[in-house]
User: Fold this.
Amino acid sequence: MVKRARALRSNPSATERLLWSRLRQRKLGGLKFRRQTPMGPYVLDFLCLRHRLIVEADGPFHDPARDAIRDAWLEAKGFRVLRFSNQEIRSAPDVVADRILAAVDELGPVPRI
Assistant:
């Protein structure tokens, strides 16, 4: 999975680049995101570990049935998954950013152990 994550980081889609430009370097509300992070059998598009929030950019080849299995696995591990279509990200990046911030506000920080 690590090799796959590295390959995905070095060759992001245009939509992932657009979203990453808003998430990187704590630009969105001071939140720290990682991109293309391996977790179990999956590679997560964007991960805010402090808030246990995963943001996925869904391209045209996403399978809703597989995504549901993946999301259930991640949610069982205590993560929340937000999915945005490429169209949403390209046409309304400010709305996507607002929805991410709203999800963080709703969740609150996860206590540090």
Remarks:
- The chain has a mean pLDDT of 91.
